[in-house]
Design a protein that fits this description.
single chain; about 65% helix; rod-shaped
Length: about 240
């Protein structure tokens, strides 16, 4: 289609070259010969088609950019919401150790990554319940809280990735992949408790030692850094015209 204006211009030039387009002995519009009228018609068609093509291309570009901007905002919002769920257990631990109320938005990843807070989180017995915070409805032990929140966040991330992977940057896709596949706490999304008896099934007890601490040394820091990387990649993935 993009060759049509070129072809019309070429035919117009050929018509003009091969015949007289102007009769000087006539006056007004009669000066145009038959060849001249044909050349004028071809030139007019070329002009109209070119203008229409440019306008159509411009409209399509605007529509494409609008869709791209809209989708990038959806991705940004959904990833932010997913990460908020995944971060929730870590913020709960911080709040449980805090002597005063701290709004959730003030418990940033940077705050959680401070050495003193990492040490407190690392020492939490995941088989125990929170001591100073109350969840409604009752969320159970720290294991239950981690499992519920991280499972929900990971499932949302994977669903979003499957749907909008073509609109995500390679950095964002890679950072999500590492969190889902390599993140220590992401295993909560796949692990399900194993009841030890029919009676215990009612209480959802697990086959496990009396107390399991927050996994190996450094796992909190590593996982929080993975989340931080997704936040940064998500921010740069937003399309702006």
């Amino acid at each position: 289609m993009e060759y049509i204006p070129i072809m019309l211009a070429f035919f117009s030039a050929c018509v003009a070259i091969n015949g007289d387009t102007w009769n000087a002995s006539e006056s007004g519009i009669k000066k145009l010969t038959r060849i001249g009228w044909i050349a004028l018609f071809l030139i007019s068609i070329t002009f109209i088609y070119s203008v229409t093509t440019v306008y159509s291309a411009r409209e399509k570009k605007i529509e494409f950019e609008t869709d791209k901007e809209r989708i990038s905002k959806i991705i940004n919002f959904e990833i932010t919401k997913s990460l908020r769920r995944i971060l929730s257990p870590f913020r709960h631990i911080y709040a449980d150790h805090s002597s005063i109320y701290v709004p959730e938005e003030d418990i940033t990843i940077q705050v959680l990554l401070e050495d003193i807070n990492l040490k407190k989180a690392q020492g939490v017995c995941l088989q125990n319940r929170p001591k100073n915070i109350v969840t409604f409805p009752d969320s159970g032990t720290w294991n239950d809280i981690f499992r519920a929140k991280i499972s929900s966040g990971i499932e949302r991330l994977e669903s979003l990735q499957n749907r909008y992977s073509q609109q995500m940057s390679s950095e964002l896709l890679e950072s999500i992949y590492h969190l889902v596949e390599d993140g220590h706490f992401s295993r909560y999304a796949w692990y399900r408790p194993i009841p030890i008896s029919s009676e215990d099934t009612k209480n959802d007890k697990l086959i496990s030692p009396t107390c399991i601490f927050s996994q190996m040394e450094g796992t909190h820091k590593e996982y929080l850094n993975m989340i931080s990387r997704i936040y940064k990649a998500n921010k740069s993935n937003v399309y702006q015209r």
